[in-house]
Write a structure and sequence with these properties.
The chain is an all-alpha fold. The chain contains five helices and no strands.
């Protein structure tokens, strides 16, 4: 017999929530630094080669900076903008990597990780937008 559903609600306590949201916000900044350090052209996708490295670096570092500054300064609209930009860029990177790496043998791990970051960023941005609008469902 399967036990009935429990009453636990999986809410993350504040002392753990802050590191989690700061890690999510800092991820695009770290990825931007990685782009700035450069990679061999053979290890980049056609999508990544569609813009200069400095453009990817700027987009990612801007997203990370806006998100972290928004959190630290408690400026929700700045944070939302950074998280949305992060979601857009990571979604694009996920799609670009998926096109070139996913086949019948797999290759979906990295695009999936980028997609998770994109989705988490967008969902956080949407949640914060609801919060500042007063919609706390």
């Amino acid at each position: 017999m399967v036990p009935r559903r429990g009453t636990w609600q999986p809410l993350i306590p504040n002392r753990y929530r802050w590191p989690i949201v700061l890690l999510l916000a800092a991820t695009p900044f770290v990825a931007g630094v990685d782009f700035a350090l450069g990679e061999p052209v053979t290890s980049t996708t056609a999508l990544e080669r569609s813009m200069p490295v400095w453009a990817w670096t700027t987009l990612l570092m801007t997203a990370g900076t806006l998100s972290v500054v928004g959190y630290v300064r408690r400026w929700p609209k700045v944070c939302i903008l950074g998280l949305h930009l992060s979601g857009v860029v990571f979604f694009a990177l996920s799609a670009g990597i998926a096109v070139e790496s996913v086949d019948v043998h797999g290759g979906f791990r990295v695009p999936w990780l980028y997609l998770v970051i994109a989705a988490a960023s967008w969902l956080a941005a949407l949640g914060y937008w609801d919060q500042i609008r007063g919609d706390r469902r």
